[in-house]
Amino acid sequence: MVLTTSTRIEETLFHHVEAFAKGDLDAHMSDYCEDAVLITLDGILRGSGEIETFFEEYLASFPPGSTFEVSQRIVERTMAYIVWSGRSEHLDTPFATETFMVRDGKILMQTFTSQMYPR
Predict the structure, then answer these.
(1) pLDDT tens digit string along 54-84?
(2) How far apart are CA 43 and CA 46, in angstroms?
(3) Which of 3, 72, 107, 112 is the Cys-Cys partner for 83 at CB 3.0 to 4.6 Å?
């Protein structure tokens, strides 16, 4: 069965969010192209190596068992957008937003910004 573009993006997004919530770095990183770009408030991360380092640190502050809720999800053409919030023993994240550009089931570009407060 051939998947529509939006269905494929939905599947990639679901896998990505699920891997994050479980704290599974390998599964999380499997969603990225090797030459993916992640844009954050701190700058641009290029390639899966730099992106993996970012998420190693972030997932350590947001371990499995933390609360995590996606309050908005929009998929249009090759783009996906989510708004979420969460709380861990280390961080309160009352607001976060991410935008993804997905090609062939892999994240090519992503933006990430959030409000985070140490607990």
Answers:
(1) 999 989 988 888 998 999 999 998 999 999 9
(2) 10
(3) 72
